[in-house]
Design goal:
The protein contains twelve helices and 25 strands. It folds into three domains: 247 residues, HUPs (Rossmann fold), CATH 3.40.50.620; 148 residues, Glutamyl-tRNA Synthetase, domain 2 (Orthogonal Bundle); 113 residues, Beta Barrel (Ribosomal Protein L25, Chain P). 25% of the residues lie in helices and 23% in strands. Strand 8, helix 8 and strand 9 form a beta-alpha-beta unit. With 549 residues, the chain is α/β, with parallel strands linked by helices. The structure holds adenosine-5'-triphosphate and magnesium ion (MG) (2 copies). The site of adenosine-5'-triphosphate (ATP) has 15 residues, from helix 2 and strand 8. It comes from Pedobacter antarcticus 4BY.
Length: 549
């Protein structure tokens, strides 16, 4: 892609590297393994890995697994697969849970410095004393406990002496700070739950704010990039690092990706999965990386999308059509053209010998430098064409088939419609044509001039396939900002299944990694459920932006 100016994070990094503040850029991508990654994560992945590639540093993959209840190994595995598929490789695979002992020791250090205390208040009691953004909070009755008592109580918390919620460890900062997060935040809570990696070793778990910055610091992360929701957390991030006297990682915030016609939080996507609204995390309508992959998106197109949306400091809403544009552009360059008839009607060529056939040659991709090679296409006197390519009473400027009209059959001959047959209900069932033997594509000497070209498949040679065509998952631009539940705004018509489409025989050898342009119809790929006996294709995207105004 073309040259662009530096974004604000690149400016910061270049300054830091030029001034010698850091020698090597180290970033991290820190997903919580509580769901599958989505296109929003792709933005953070492209940012973090893209920066370290550009500046010759490295990126760690750190699973931010501090909540034993929602995390699963299935998610760890899928997240790794998705990052690799996007084209990135991390330097170290790390887990916040590997730092549980160190984080515990950091907490002890804070207690020893008189900077943390055990609070027996309930969640409600603690909240009641927090104050409001305009009014200072009040000290907890447990705030003035001695260091010895706090050390002992924290040890008892760790040893499992208390039940969930009986007490917490809080940082002792400032109950009248204008930043509510600085009003003695909870840093450890009790949870008697099995953790996906540490099992039952721990029954106390660090809060996000106590884990994240310190984990960055442990790994000597130089630039810790996160989304704007964390702006107010930065003060706390810095406070812990300063009080603990550890490596000064620095946090910078950028605008998260919001995309029209979808939702992006893992919690909400999980709801769609659990309630059966979609077939799974990798349903082709999902904004997850695995859903996009199954839909036929390429890693290149997703990276290009992330590059185009750029990095901003202010929230915005990106059009889904931009993502579609990016994949359409990439597939236009790379996908082989093939013929598939989705809504078939029979066309009989009356002057072509019955029972005879010939092999025609089709160029695979006129947009590719090598034209993508070529393929063989069988032709005969009986073809399937699209029902919509025939009009009994043609509109003005109709260049396709109609009584008396001529059209070119792609890669084949020019035909003229002589007649058509209707059933008792008045539906056209067959179109009868004659062909011009001297009009063969590539060696046409007929001097006939036709404006329209249509696709077709020989009935005797056609294979059948199921074709799934998708629409947006939600019917409104921003389901998150509508009144009521986001699920009230689902598009009830987001998938259309064509049980029996006819495809050219070449497509019987399609593999999972290939993408195709069904000429005049859109871009398609095999679905995960496809078998050689029952081919299933997904539409990735139509040929044109159907939503363009
Ligand atoms: P979700 O609510 O979807 O679970 P999250 O922020 O809780 O999002 P994490 O697994 O913690 O999910 O995210 C890992 C990284 O991805 C974080 O650094 C986070 O800032 C980033 N990220 C998550 N969602 C987006 C988004 N929509 N745009 C850009 N970055 C995102
Ligand atoms: Mg998170
Ligand atoms: Mg989350």
């Amino acid at each position: 892609s073309e040259e662009r100016s530096l974004n604000f994070i690149e400016e910061i990094i270049e300054n830091d590297l030029n001034s010698g503040k850091y020698e090597t850029l180290i970033t991290r991508f820190p997903p919580e393994p509580n769901g599958y990654l989505h296109i929003g994560h792709a933005k953070a992945i492209c940012l973090n890995f893209g920066l370290s590639q550009k500046y010759g540093g490295y990126t760690n993959l750190r699973f931010d697994d501090t909540n034993p209840v929602t995390e699963k190994t299935e998610y760890v595995d899928s997240q790794q697969q998705d990052i690799k598929w996007l084209g990135f490789q991390w330097k170290n695979e790390l887990y916040t849970s590997d730092y549980f002992q160190t984080l515990h020791d950091f907490a002890v250090k804070l207690i020893e410095k008189g900077l943390a205390y055990v609070d027996h208040g309930t969640a409600e009691e603690i909240a009641a004393l927090k104050g409001t953004p305009t009014e200072p909070g009040k000290d907890s009755p447990y705030r003035s406990r001695s260091t010895e008592e706090n050390l002992e109580l924290f040890a008892e918390m760790k040893a499992g002496k208390f039940e969930d919620g009986a007490c917490t460890l809080r940082a002792k900062i400032d109950m009248s700070s204008p930043n509510m997060l600085m009003r003695d935040p909870i840093i450890y809570r009790i949870k008697h739950a099995e953790h996906h990696r540490t099992g039952n070793t721990w029954c106390i778990y660090p809060m996000y704010d106590f884990a994240h910055g310190q984990s960055d610091s442990i790994e000597s992360i130089t630039h810790s990039l996160c989304t704007l929701e964390y702006v107010s957390h930065r003060e706390l991030y810095n406070w812990f690092i300063e009080m603990l006297e550890i490596f000064p990682s620095q946090q910078y915030e950028f605008a998260r990706l919001n995309l029209t016609y979808t939702v992006m939080s893992k919690r909400k996507l999980l709801q769609l999965v659990n309630e059966g609204v979609v077939s799974g995390w990798n349903d082709p309508r999902m904004p997850t990386i695995s859903g996009l992959r199954r839909r036929g998106y390429t890693p290149e197109s997703i990276r290009e999308f992330c590059e185009r949306i750029g990095i901003a400091k202010r929230e915005n809403l990106i059009e889904l059509s931009l993502l579609e544009f990016c994949v359409r552009e990439h597939l236009n360059k790379t996908a082989n053209r093939v013929m598939a008839v989705l809504d078939p009607i029979k066309l009989v060529i009356t002057n072509y010998p019955e029972g005879q056939s010939e092999i025609l040659i089709g160029e695979n991709n006129p947009e590719a430098e090598d034209k993508g090679g070529s393929r063989e296409i069988p032709f005969s006197n009986e073809l399937w064409i699209e029902r919509e390519d025939f009009m009994e009473e043609p509109a003005k400027k109709w260049f396709r088939l109609a009584p008396g009209a001529m059209v070119r059959l792609k890669n084949a001959y020019i035909v003229q419609c002589d007649d058509f047959i209707k059933d008792e209900n008045g539906n056209v069932t067959e179109i009868r044509c004659s062909y011009f033997p001297n009009s063969k594509s590539g060696e046409d000497t007929s001097e006939l001039h036709v404006k329209g070209t249509i696709h077709w498949v020989s009935t005797a040679h056609a294979k059948t396939a199921e074709v799934r065509i998708y629409d947006r998952l939600f019917s409104v631009e921003s389901p998150d900002s509508e009144e009521g539940d986001f699920k009230d705004y689902l598009n009830s018509d987001s998938v259309r299944v064509i049980k029996q489409a006819y495809i050219e025989p070449y497509l019987a050898q399609a593999d999972m990694d290939s993408r195709y342009q069904f000429i005049r119809k859109g871009y398609y790929c095999l679905d995960l459920e496809s078998t050689p006996e029952h081919l299933v294709f997904n539409q990735t995207v139509g040929l044109k932006d159907a939503w363009a105004k």
